[in-house]
Amino acid sequence: MGATTIILVLVFVLLLVMNVPIAVSIAMAAFVAIFAEGIDPSVMMATKMANGVNSFALLAIPFFILSGHLMGRGGMARRLIEFASSLVGMFPGGLAYVNTLTCMLFGSISGSAAAAVSSVGGFMIPEMNRKGYNREFNVAVTTTAATTGLLIPPSNVMIVYSVAAGSVSIAAMFMAGVLPGILMGLCIMVVCGFFAFRNKYACEERVSFFVGLVSFKRAILSLLLIIIVIGGILKGVFTPTEAAAIAVLYSFILSVIVYRQVTLKQMPEILRQTGITTAIVMLLIGASSGMSWIMTMANIPQSVSAALLNLSDNPIVILLTINLLLLFVGTFMDMTPAVLIFTPIFLPVVTSLGIHQVHFGIMMIANLCIGLCTPPVGTCLFIGCGVGKTTIAKVTKTMLPFFAAMIIALMAITYLPRLSLWLPVKTGQLKTEEVERSIEKWHNNLSGDQVGSK
Questions:
Q1: Torsion angle, alpha carbons of 221, 224, 226, 228, to 10
Q2: Measured distance CA(198)–CA(280) in Å, rounded
Q3: What is the spatial distance between Cα 48 and Cα 294, in angstroms, rounded to a whole number?
Q4: In Å, what is the CA distance from 213 to each residue of 82, 88, 98, 216, 367?
Q5: DSSP notation for 358-391
Q6: Structure pTM?
Q7: For residue 234, how many other CB atoms are within 10 A of its CB?
């Protein structure tokens, strides 16, 4: 390990321990490491940060953030809850299933797990409390289910990964996340079923077909956003960035004109919140670009790659090690900086094993979703405990079965590449030959025909 690497790691960890904001920690660590290399850090950091955010694809992020804010305040959550209740409310513990399904739908529409926890949880957690469900269970369901929306498109973190990985199709990432996101939600529902059986939670009243149809009609305009965005991208009508702008226009019309839940007087505050969130994300991307450059100069990705490939001849063990490292990182680092920092480190390793870039992106996002629910930096966990008026210490024990379910889903996503790659191939976002070559290389590595540099 070179002196530059030691300096970079020590400064970064020291700043994090001192509770310095993550973006500043990244930028300062890179600044000091560049200075240690004998390069003018002021010029180099400014150049790398400017180049890092100078990407057309990144324009989609502020649009999707604004769309998410409009959706969050636009009355969509209540309509989706009614629709989900008509589908799964009649089962024992029905409100838990309704909560999970609504979080999946709302998270995918808004593209924000935090918005899903606050919007859906703001109604569902008090309602489940009133119906006799355990308070900590209610918070645990909402917190974990909200993260599925980051896998089901559209998702800002997928855009960040595409930029960090380079030359990875955003449309392919969007399609790749659909089945893994559904799988994650189903695993959470299985845990809900276990709690419902053990605690004898009641069923909700079965609704008639007519009532179900009415709830679907109330929710269809909100659900159409996913169809418009994904359908438009797949058909080549517009790019992901243009789709994000369309999402803003559609959300504005729905929230302000159709549902009338957002007034024009509220728009300055919504735009202000969008600007703050966008600035934070862009600062993280710019700072991480500087760190990625100095890591490359210090040969950190190559060193980590060699260390992992020398660790074991078994690709299953290597992927398990990467997952464990990411799970650890996710406990104290938010998703965006984790994706930006660790994508260039781990991507060379997994591609040498035959893992497709799109598959690895979904695996990484699914892994880091778990980190949003874990202390000490679990954003969704903090919001869920605030909404549910309980403490992290009380919720953590109830969360353990949900963590187990999410890890089982993560293992399936990791070791079954077709789960992520089948839909992008079927929709034409990835070439069949490219995917088959990647999977064949993975199978060869598993059988011991090719392993890293061995």
A1: -130
A2: 43
A3: 10
A4: 11, 14, 16, 5, 37
A5: HHHHHHHHHHHHHHTTSSSS-HHHHHHHHHHT--
A6: 0.87
A7: 14
